[in-house]
Amino acid sequence: MKTLYTAEALASGEGRDGNARSKDGKLDVALASPVELGGNGQGTNPEQLFAAGYAACFHSALRLVGRKARADLTDSAVAAKIHFGALEDAEGYGLAAELEIALPALDRQAAEALVAKAHRICPYSNATRGNIDVDIKLVEVAA
Fold it and tell me: 0.90 exceeded by the pTM?
């Protein structure tokens, strides 16, 4: 891979209950385990950060392939859900992802084609492919 950009961040404190800060200071967040995992929920958590990153990255990939196809991307959006849980067949924990994609100006066939292309080029999709389950759903398309 030819590196085009490197992001740097440091997590400190108690891991999930600490702080995360990018080297340039543009990201500086308090981390807290969610209430569902026994935490106080008074900060963000790695799964929320991953969800935000995946949604933004996939939407960027979708807009790139859409522009190349001259598709109408009016009101396009991507929502991501990152699921955290105990592994069933191994020790430790794992993740799964859901992407919900709205392309309200496109018919289903055109939307599906763009989503497939975006999934092939999105860096998050390429990083997760074969490592975690990623469920992609079109939630809004033109009739």
Answer: yes
